[in-house]
Amino acid sequence: MKVLLLEDDAELAPEVVAGLRRNGFVVDHVTTCADTDLQVAVTHYDCLVLDRRVPDGDALDWLAAARADGLRVPALMLTARAEVGDRVDGFERGADDYLVKPFAFPELVVRVRALAQRTPGARPRLLTAGGLTLDVPRHRVTLDGVLLTLTAKEFAVLEVLMEHAGEVVTRAELVERCWDEMSEPSSNVVDVLMGQLRRRLGVPGLIETVRGVGYRLGTDGDRDGDRDGAGTR
């Protein structure tokens, strides 16, 4: 799940970004409404987390205008403005949720995850392929009923592969979905992570390399024999 955070507090923003990433989100961070507008125009996000007061205005004004222009991405207002009137105003002008500072971080994670599932065309909450079951809300993966331990990045990459099981996923698509703009990896880093993921799964041939293109996660019929390095599908 990819999140855009609008927050200009130099102390709070890094904590929120790091915490969301620890919980498996891909996070881009901006500090102005203008940059928010630019990011939303060029990147697909599953959820927006918006501080209201930022250097170039009120993010709620930006959100109301964006809603009028057809923006449908769920948005959570993260603000110190706690009055009932402020919250009502937020909901009436396009916010989907409203969390008051200071807040408990586990609550933010739960709220963002719930909102991301409302995104138009949102991905399934439970994915299955090749004996794998991936529970998105609970951040759990099992293989033939056995619970696996994956890093947040491995989970994100596996989620994308499972969404497109049986199809080739390009390296560019993996970078777009699983890395934020401040840490876009070289193709070698993607390859290294894929090797780590293969070792975690422990099933030869379950993830196939399609040379010069990307990767393919096999289905139940693809688990016999190592296909790594294959040149065709």
Mean pLDDT: 85
Runs in which pLDDT lies below 50 for 5 or more consecutive residues are 224-233
Main sheet summary: 5 strands, parallel
Secondary-structure element string:
EHEHEEEHEHEHEEEEHEHHEE
Strand order of the largest sheet: 2-1-3-6-7
DSSP helical segment count: 8
Question: Shape from CA axes?
Answer: elongated
By DSSP, the count of extended strands is 14
Strand content: 15-25%
Rg result: 19 Å
Question: Helical percent range?
Answer: 25-40%
Structural class designation? alpha/beta
Q: What's the end-to-end separation, in Å?
A: 27 Å
Explain this structure to me?
By secondary structure, the chain is an alpha/beta fold. The chain contains eight helices and 14 strands. Helix 6 packs across helix 8 (187-201). It is elongated. It starts with a strand and ends in a 16-residue tail after the last strand.
